[in-house]
Specification:
Number of strands: 23
CATH class of the domain at 88-234: Alpha Beta
CATH topology of the domain at 88-234: FAD/NAD(P)-binding domain
CATH architecture of the domain at 88-234: 3-Layer(bba) Sandwich
Strand content: 15-25%
Structural class: alpha/beta
């Protein structure tokens, strides 16, 4: 068995926004893959970039010296990348949040903006720009980032800055849809909006972004001057997936790989796809969502299918059945929304539930204990831990 990944670590993405806003460190939510799988004697790990998947030749080509590895079974779980909807030139101004590198870049830009604001005189237009953050996208990533950014400035860092008035920290959340968290119950969406506005976030709905440049966003005909711009409006499969379409693999309109109820790619013996890049409908006709729980369930099912196929009993494996374990999003301190098993709640109860669920799904005990202690310290003392900057750029 061979595992290939372009990084050497497993990343718990739901908490990535807390690294971006200085609440946690990267090592709190990421663990080396080799450490996690050190007990798997039949497993080889390669840190490499996959450049080509040759379905006809049943092989995968790595970037390192164009090394080619043949396979009997292939599981494609490449994840997704930030989608700027044809405006890739915006990427250098509006930072996505898909990796540790993205989180570090946002954190540096955000904290450096506060530091620069401290050096500027009162009523200076540039100070206002430095204290302004624009978040684009009203899904869980955008909502959580907006809430964390406004809390960081107005509540956490405010006492430590003597010149810049961080109570003037401005966060603008822009989304083209008519409500936040569009996959949630409308009542929870409205509650999330109210809670964000109560915290000081300016929510702009039904507004499309028209232009993004160095330090500004134009949306709905209005220009927003901002030192920090975060893009959380969409995702798309990596370019490698598109090359599979030219090899006869069916892709949906979003560019994801169409798979059957066994998560197998039609017409390709021993090839499976899982996670955000897979378009899957389960045996009951339920669409498997592009969420963490969907990816985990697809991965488990693929493992069962392969083991059964090796044993000559593949027909005995029933179609995948997606089990919806609920959705939730945190908004800020003591505030979240959750829909679990039809039980819809918000506020402090949802926030505690969110904390517990995310602690459970962290991958090892050290991470669970570290994150729990940091959360307790942050709640009691308002002191985030990941705030070091090294010569921030202008």
């Amino acid at each position: 068995m061979v595992l290939v990944d372009r990084t050497n670590h497993h990343l718990f993405q739901p908490l990535l926004y807390q690294v971006a806003t200085a609440g946690l460190s990267g090592s709190d939510i990421a663990q080396p893959v080799r450490t996690i799988l050190r007990g798997q004697r039949n497993l080889h790990v390669h840190m490499a970039q996959v450049e080509e998947i040759d379905l006809a030749g049943r092989s995968v080509v790595f970037d390192f010296q164009r090394y080619r590895l043949e396979y009997d079974y292939l599981v494609i779980a490449l994840g997704v990348r930030t989608n700027y909807f044809g405006n890739d030139q915006w990427a250098k101004h509006a930072l996505g949040l898909k990796s540790l590198a993205d989180a570090y870049a946002i954190r540096e830009r955000l904290l450096a903006a506060f530091e620069r604001a401290e050096n500027l005189p009162d009523n200076h237009a540039e100070r206002t720009r430095q204290l302004t953050t624009v978040v684009i996208g009203g899904g869980p990533t955008g909502v959580e980032m907006a809430g964390a950014c406004v809390e960081l400035g107005r509540r956490v860092l405010k006492p430590e800055f003597k010149s810049a008035n961080l109570s003037e920290t401005r966060v603008v959340l822009i989304d083209a849809g008519q409500r936040l968290l569009s996959t949630f119950d409308p009542e929870l969406s409205e509650r999330a909006k109210r809670d964000l506005e109560r915290m000081g976030v300016q929510v702009k709905l039904g507004v499309r972004v028209e232009e993004i440049g160095e330090g500004y966003v134009v949306a709905g005909g209005e220009r927003y001057e901002a030192a920090t711009i975060v893009w959380g409006a969409g995702v798309s499969p990596p370019p490698l997936v598109k090359t599979l379409g030219s090899q006869g693999v069916a892709l949906d309109k979003s560019g994801r790989i169409e798979v059957g109820t066994d998560c197998a790619v039609a017409g390709q013996r021993g090839v499976f796809a899982a996670g955000d890049i897979a378009s899957c409908t389960d045996g009951a006709g339920v669409r498997v969502p592009g969420l963490c729980q969907g990816a985990i369930q697809m991965g488990d099912h693929i493992g069962r299918v392969i083991m059964a196929d090796v044993a000559g009993k593949r027909d005995a494996v029933k179609p995948i059945k997606y089990r919806d374990k609920g959705t939730m999003a945190t908004i800020g301190r003591s505030s979240a929304v959750a829909d679990v098993g039809g039980w819809k709640t918000g506020g402090f109860v949802a926030w505690v539930l969110w904390l517990l669920v995310h602690l459970i799904f962290l991958i090892d005990l050290r991470s669970k204990m570290t994150v729990m202690l940091k959360w307790i310290a942050a709640y009691v003392f308002y002191k985030p831990t990941g705030r070091l900057l090294d010569a921030p750029k202008a």
